[in-house]
Amino acid sequence: MDRRQLVWGMGALASVSGYGVATADTGGLRIDLLGQALIEHAPAAAEWPGRAGVVGVLEGADVVFTNLETVIRGPRAGAPTRELLTLHASGPEILETLKGAGVDLLTTANNHAFDLGSGGILDTLDAIDATGLRTTGSGVDLARATAPATVETPAGKVSAIGFATGKVRPGGAAASGHPGVNELRRDASGAPLAEDEARILAAIRQAASSSDAVIACHHNHDWEPDNSQVPGWQQAFARRCIDAGASVFAGHGSPVLQGMAAHRGRPLLFGLGNFIFQTEKPQGAYPPAAWQGVIASVIIDGDRPLRVELTPLVLNEIGLNGSEDQATRGFPTLAGDQDAAGILARLAAQSTALGGRVNVRGTRGGLELI
Question: Out of 3.30.930.10, 3.60.21.10, 3.40.50.1820, 3.40.50.720, which CATH number does the structure's domain 3-367 have?
């Protein structure tokens, strides 16, 4: 059976460790949402030891979604707009790595989209288009950057709208006649700027009118002092995205997992952490929590999310050949029992503080949609 035909159900279905992925076809739509993908190297088979387990989970999804935090080098690339230590750029082969893992829907709205200037944004969009992947959140102008990306599946049509706040460098935001990212700015009071909010919510409403599910994805770098916490203004905006018709709100930007909640029975996944994290900063530059993530599998029936299942991941901070081996650093593996328990316990506590409830059963978790 093709992975596009595999969905979860609500009955007596097969599971992993008591809370895992069901495999019977009950006519629903399953979307797997991943943490951000900062990928700079395409691994050979032996260089991603956990690939089979991760892909084995993702194969059951109708759509797999992530945030691409890497610019694809091409003929229009400009000079780097940041220091080399935090420049995220690679060749188009990394897109094949993501596609081979099951990813088919991306957002490119983030503070690294402009790392090689406007030309880098255009080269990245062309490379993504050439692979057959779909992306949202950046474009040749503001209208294109705001427009949804859509994937048609036998189980339904899924659209995504991406936008970014914070650390978008001058010249990196899309405008009329200017390429860039779909920026959600904040006004002097700290609230989302009215014109940006109106544009993004209108795009969500339009996508919801013609799609079976809509992902609203926010890459936020306007963090709290503790970047595991979710700013109040972002929580409020996430609820407005749901009110506008989003099926799920997905957050990226902070390099660590943040809590989860629900609004009107729809999931608010404020910070999904990292899926691939090939930072060039030295070992110890990020806390242990940066090397953790989850696969959040959202099952939708009609226009109503039924449940969210959480599969914990761990990433290797050190490359397979030692601390100097950047090429094999930061790839995900399904978390073992002890790591999974710790990740889910911490996520459950974070979610409780936001009014959400994450239940834990063995090495899997579930977000209550209440």
Answer: 3.60.21.10
